[in-house]
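agent> Task received from the user: take the single chain below, predict its 3D structure, and emit structure tokens. No templates, no multimer pairing.
agent> Plan: (1) validate residues, (2) run structure prediction, (3) serialize to tokens, (4) report one or two observations.
agent> Step 1 OK, no nonstandard residues flagged.
tool_call: predict_structure(input=
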Amino acid sequence: MRRVALYIFLVAIILSGCIGRTRDRLSVGCQRGEHNDCLTLGLMALKGQDGRKDPQKALKNLVRSCELGNSIGCKRAGDMWENGVLGCKDPRKAEMYHQMARELELDELRVGKSRP
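)
tool_result: status=success, residues=116
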């Protein structure tokens, strides 16, 4: 039983180091304008995969992803405002981000249809 507990503890330590390095790599990518890296950082902060949930950091990265053209980032930012994850709901901001997501999705469909 002690061996199992020790094994689980060691695996947790190793994985926490991996998550830290992954987060650092994603942060650099987000700063360089990689929308998927910003999205991943936002989702990690929202779910608490970095140790604790951080809704403010999540929203910041999801909005950055959205601004860089990621429709999922826009949708998730809108969901956060709609559900009041930061402590207050803002239907106006929620609709704004959801509308941006819809527009980006339409653009993606148009581009996809124009490809041979």
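agent> Step 4: summary for the user.
The two ends are 60 Å apart (CA to CA).
agent> Done.
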